[in-house]
Specification:
seven-stranded mixed sheet; about 475 residues; alpha/beta; 16 helices; six-stranded mixed sheet
Length: about 475
């Protein structure tokens, strides 16, 4: 199925486009125009929120089991349409077919967790005094919103939408203006699964819609995933307007490699973490801290990187601007004295000469104060910083402003434990290059990789997407044994 000529908003079950200004959607595979997007305004958001408000009473009044039943159907529709959904991710984001399919499979897994909510969300009840009961029930917040990035157009919306909706909220999604096609199809499939009109709405656009979401008095909570720069702005603005907000930002993930690490496994994992999804993921390896004598592992990394071929097992980055920025970082590091071991600049792919490709890049002898060592690159690039011992390596990792993930490669349990305890990151890997926790565990980092309290994924997301109602009851007027009775 080819994408629609024009992307439309989804408001109260209707696809609408109200003469807004627009922008073309460019496929990073070859630079071609694949669709056109409305740059919506605050009035469009107002209409979506109003639809969600009207849908909320009926939707929230349904039993948890009834809401879950719709998502059982929806999860099956994801499986039935996996080839089409894979192609959409490939086309609009540039991921390889295998990476795109893995993303859709992860979305299915997220739905599987969401439909387990009846086994997880249980009310608490206790007889706190003679004849007196207290109970706690989870209640939805109302209208909520999520703002999602370009790098996982199918998966990241599934971090929020199934959980938030199953828990009884109604929702407005603002997908990245670079990759709206997967979100549009998501809306189609949710409607096919039986989701009532107005429960799920999509408003496309850019900065104006984001600001309107943060400012809207009827939106009770907002989740954001994107760069740290924007995450800070969204968190401050939304929370300043008394919304709940969790904003997940960028990363600069450090992989600490010790001399005793298994050479083949380590080289494969580090390079795969660096180059997977063209490095456009907040869990990608960005800095390798080589502890003492690790040249034998670096040599194997070079060999692994040389097996990665743009256009075959490596997709493009999202835009020409991103390509230029990434290559600029590499050039600057080289000018500052770093050594380019594998150079991904100037790549073109036959038949896709206008695609936005950057080849795998390994840079050695990087200093911690270089821009390439400190700033998020978001491309298939890894910097190697040399450390004399594990303590220096941990200090280098701790020096980052970010704190999404960190990993250690070693055969020593005690060395691994030191990194597990000492790394300043929310997600830790031991001999794992991409330490993404699986449900029911939540995704989220520390420091400038996350703003706000709580989680939007996993079991702990229940706390974020609901509020507690506490009820105390007494039906025995004759019993007066203590003050509460």
């Amino acid at each position: 199925m080819m994408p629609q000529t024009q992307v439309k908003n989804l408001i109260n079950g209707q696809k609408l486009r109200n003469g807004q200004t627009s922008m073309d959607i460019i496929s990073p595979l070859d630079g071609s125009v694949i669709s056109n997007l409305p740059m919506s305004n605050s009035s469009d958001l107002d209409a979506a929120v109003e639809a969600a408000k009207k849908a909320f009473p009926t939707w929230s009044d349904m039993t948890l089991k009834e809401r879950v039943h719709i998502f059982f159907k929806y999860r099956q529709l994801l499986e039935d349409n996996i080839e089409e959904l894979t192609e959409l991710v490939h086309l609009e984001n540039g991921k390889t077919e295998d990476e795109a399919r893995a993303e859709v499979l992860k979305s299915m897994e997220l739905c599987e967790f969401a439909v387990s909510m009846p086994q997880i969300v249980t009310n608490e009840i206790q007889e706190v005094s003679k004849g007196v009961e207290c109970r706690i029930e989870r209640k939805p917040l109302g209208v909520v919103a999520c703002i999602t990035p370009f790098n996982f157009p199918n998966m990241v919306p599934h971090w929020t939408v199934p959980n938030a909706l199953i828990l009884g909220n109604t929702l407005v999604l603002k997908p990245s203006e670079l990759v709206p096609l997967s979100a549009v199809r998501m809306g189609d499939l949710l409607k096919e699964a039986g989701l009532p009109d107005g429960v799920f709405n999509i408003v496309n656009g850019g900065k104006e819609v984001v600001e309107a979401i943060c400012d809207h008095p009827d939106i009770k909570a907002t989740s954001f995933v994107g760069s740290t720069k924007v995450a800070k702005i969204v968190y401050k603005r939304a929370s300043g307007n008394l919304q709940r907000c969790v904003a997940l930002g960028g990363a600069k993930n450090h992989l600490l490699v010790l001399p005793d690490a298994n050479p083949d496994m380590t080289a494969n994992n580090v390079v795969a973490s660096m180059a997977g999804c063209a490095g456009q993921r907040c869990m990608a390896a960005s800095v390798m801290v080589g502890v003492d004598k690790v040249q034998h592992i670096i040599d194997k990394m070079i060999a692994e990187a040389n097996l990665i071929m743009p256009g075959k097992n490596l997709g493009p980055v999202i835009s020409q601007e991103a390509k230029d920025r990434i290559e600029g970082y590499i050039t600057e590091a080289e000018a500052q004295g770093a050594k380019i071991l594998v150079d991904g600049r100037g790549v073109t792919v036959s038949g896709h000469e206008k695609g936005f490709y950057v080849g795998p890049t390994i840079i050695d002898y990087v200093k911690p104060d270089m821009a390439i060592a400190k700033e998020e690159i978001f491309g298939p690039v890894i910097s190697i910083i040399r450390a004399s011992d594990i303590d220096e390596a941990i200090r280098i990792e701790n020096g980052s402003n970010y704190g999404n993930a960190a990993a250690v490669f070693t055969e020593s349990g005690s060395m691994a434990k030191r990194v597990m305890d000492g790394a300043s990151a929310g997600m830790i890997g031991v001999n794992i290059g991409v330490p993404v926790p699986r449900e029911p565990f939540s995704f989220g980092g520390w420091n400038e990789s996350k703003f706000g309290v709580g989680d939007i994924t996993g079991k702990s997301s229940i706390e974020f997407w609901t509020q507690n109602k506490k009820t105390t009851t007494k039906w025995n007027p004759e019993d007066k044994r203590d003050w509460m009775s």
